[in-house]
Amino acid sequence: MKPNFLALILIAAALLGCAETPRRLQTEEEALHTNGSITRLFHSALYYPFEITPRFDGYLVGIEKVRRPPGGIDVRNRKEYGLENGALQAKFDDSKVMAVTHVIRHFADARQFNNCTLFNAYIQSSDSVNRQLVRACDLAQEMIIRHPNDAFPNSWKALDELRDDIGHRIASRLTKAQGDAADKAAAVFGTGAAYTHIIVLVMGWNTVQEEAVRNFNSLMWNIEKAHKRRPDKLKAMPGLPFNPLVIGVTWPSQWSSNWLDPAIKIVSFPTKAGDADEVGMSWLGVLLHDTLPAVREAVKTREGYKKDLPVVVLGHSFGAKASSVAACAGPAVVRPEKTTTTPLADIDVLVNLEPAYLSERIFGRTSWLHNVVYYPKGCPRAQRFVITASASDRAVPLPFWGTYLGEEKSYRKFCAADHDGPRLAHCAVADHNGEVAPKFLGTSKNIYYVDASELISENAYETGGGSHSDIYRFEHGRLIYAAIMGEGIWAKSE
Questions:
Q1: Based on the domain organization, do 441 and 468 belong to the same domain?
Q2: Which residues of 36-63 are buried (b: 16+ CB within 10 A; e: fewer)?
């Protein structure tokens, strides 16, 4: 008994020691209420600046759920939501709200240029400055103390910092400046070809930040590979460079961890579905309709660059839901000094891969539920809106209360040969190589519904839901690239 007793004492001491050993940002996490075993997984890039980083030029925008401000928040309804005022307010009626907690500038080669924070809500005191593992992009930012209670309104400041930095970064590739000015810009942003697109990426349900970054890298790698492997006849066409600046947006999409029973994750489905809407109606919507339009205008003004940089938004699963409400309907949050919502801007390309939201959001309300968002006028702000569905997707048929856009049943309903009534979307079919062919013409100018059953057909490594997450292969990159560049069936939609 004595050895067993000693073993128990040693185990207890070890566990106690682990419990008393603080994490580097634990004090700041506790202040923001992002210190849970799951919630802290959505700022892991702040712990691993070179390991958890996108491998392309761009930014990582971290949205997390933080304590609701003592004075509440101001959200305004928009006719684009198709919601009554009470239903909109209910979507934001929570003890915690979405806020931008960190914005990281990164480069394709992090060995040459250090990743740094443009905004960091985890700098809350002079002591916490020294605990940061990702340095601030400039000393002035490093010394700005962010009070935890101001995390929600400070999100405007975070995106304003992003706006200014993107503008300078794009301009640095266009400017004709020589000497010290050029050297300074090169030291900060590097050198290279002008950026041709701004791409915004958003992932879906149960995707922690580390996994989201891996997925961003997979998507962009395959899109860029598709560009390099374009057919010779397209390579010869002038005016088609591809050098995107990419913004990856992460959000708290997981409510449980892998060691919990899968049934617990199912319970989180409606909660995270609501959170996806909140992301789109808040900071993702602000990014698309406030931040990026200001960037495009500033670049034109400063540099005489007459052509707008195309904005491309790509979302998967619940990320598709967040991106659709952000792009099609815009933000409900209002700047502190303003009294009205942000005007809507055009989005050049919106791609929703296996979207996890009701098809009535696009094709018209049929539900008796009055808290369901739908777009009464469709999505006219997206100049090209591409949606995929697959027969092998086992995740999107999960909800019993309606038909989701990413499931084959929805595609059959709206793209059947004997479809009753006007056909809104242009119906198309993708083969296993990612080549898309038209099937039926629709009345919409911008919406393309693609049966991707041959393409999205495999179970991606360590994922559930059948083929729901089968979007990270070269063939998928080929489809996405064609949609971005207006090639294939999209060549005539310019």
A1: yes
A2: eeebbbbbbbbeebeebbbbbbbbbbbb
The two tokens of residue 452 are: 């991707």
For the segment 68-81, what is each residue's pLDDT rounded down to a tens digit?
Answer: 998 889 999 999 99
Strands 447-451 and 426-430: parallel
SS3 25: coil
Q: How far apart are CA 319 and CA 296, in angstroms?
A: 24
How far is the CA of 409 from the CAs of 213, 266, 389, 394, 403, in angstroms?
31, 21, 9, 12, 7
Q: Which domain holds residue 19?
A: 2-30
**Within this chain, do residues 9 and 78 fall inside the same structural domain, yes or no?**
no
Confidence of residue 269 (pLDDT cuts 50, 70, 90): confident
Q: Does residue 289 contact residue 344 with C-beta atoms inside 8 Å?
A: yes
- Number of structural domains the chain divides into: 2
How many CA atoms are closer than 13 Å to the CA of 116, on its beta-carbon side? Answer: 17
Tokens read off for 473: 């292969």
Q: What's the gap between Cα 250 and its chain centre?
A: 6
| pTM score | 0.92
- Residues 367 and 83 sit within 8 Å (Cβ to Cβ): no
The rounded distance, in Å, linking the Cα atoms of 348 and 435 is 21
**Per-residue pLDDT at 237 exceeds 90:** no
